[in-house]
Write a structure and sequence with these properties.
CATH class: Alpha Beta
CATH superfamily: Extracellular Endonuclease, subunit A
Radius of gyration: 15 Å
Mean pLDDT: 91
Strand content: 25-35%
Number of helices: 1
Low-confidence stretches: none
Largest sheet: 6 strands, antiparallel
Number of domains: 1
Strand order of the largest sheet: 1-2-5-6-7-8
Shape: globular
Distance between the termini: 25 Å
Number of strands: 8
CATH topology: Extracellular Endonuclease, Chain A
CATH architecture: 3-Layer(aba) Sandwich
Order of helices and strands: EEEEHEEEE
């Protein structure tokens, strides 16, 4: 798995998964001030409104793929609804295909930022597999319950 940082902003992740054995348990985000595991907060997290669905320290490479919740190269500030259920719903479908062993998957995520901003406007998710997976979705970082991913392709299995 590779992680990319631009200044103090997480920007991109990549992982190649050849089968269920490549799926690792990542770590949840450290959000309590615990001296054994200090709180990690991505840029502009506290600037997001704490509305009904809250805000999230979102993994670019999800925990279910081995993504770290302690590494700022993997964390972005997200509205809670954008993180879950919208982004996590796509991630779960990708993980299910990898776990089944039916296909090898190349998975990329990219945070899309406005110039000078520490909060992404959207997260771009792409996954391509040997068994027909072709996922290309943009998750808008908004608090709206009607937020649906914008997908040019959302095929998970062949």
């Amino acid at each position: 798995m590779s992680l990319t940082l631009d200044g103090c902003r997480a920007t991109r992740t990549h992982g190649d998964f050849n089968g269920p054995e490549d799926l690792e348990d990542g770590t949840a985000t450290a959000w309590k001030n615990d001296p054994r595991r200090p709180m990690v907060t991505p840029p502009e997290y506290w600037l997001l409104p704490d509305h009904q669905h809250g805000r999230a320290r979102g993994h670019l490479m999800g925990k279910q793929f081995g993504g770290s919740g302690d590494n700022l190269r993997n964390l972005v500030s997200l509205h809670g609804w954008a993180n879950s259920p919208v982004m996590s719903g796509i991630e779960t479908k990708i993980k299910t295909e990898i776990k089944s062993g039916r296909q090898r998957v190349s998975y990329d995520t990219r945070a899309v930022y406005a110039p000078g901003s520490g909060t992404p406007l959207a997260i771009h998710l792409e996954a391509h597999g040997t068994g027909g997976m072709n996922v290309d979705c943009l998750v808008l970082n908004v608090a709206d319950e009607d937020n649906e991913p914008i997908c040019s392709s959302q095929t998970y299995g062949g």
